[in-house]
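Q: My labmate handed me this sequence with no annotations at all. I'd like to see what the chain might look like in three dimensions before we decide whether it's worth expressing. Could you predict it?
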Amino acid sequence: MIELINLESSGCVSGGVVTFSCIPFILQNVVNFLVGFASIVAVFMLVFAGFKMAWARGDMQKVADARKIIIFTLIGLFLVYASFVLVNILATSTGVTQLAPKP
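A: Here is what I predict for the chain of 103 residues:
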């Protein structure tokens, strides 16, 4: 499970006001949320496409629609995971060590 970063404990809040140094933490929280949310949605979409394909009963148009759902779901999931990797690569290359994924 990917955890969200608490802005208060990150040291980027000064006097109760969020500063520009919080931008990497906010970006990381958004990407972490999207990874979890997209994974759950992808599972439901793949199950839905599987049922749609099973209930096609030989109708090639319905089978093609189900395949499109599967392909677009996998492309979307790839994009979300790629953004996760990109944010972590950028974080480590710029020296923001608090964002590094925990094993």
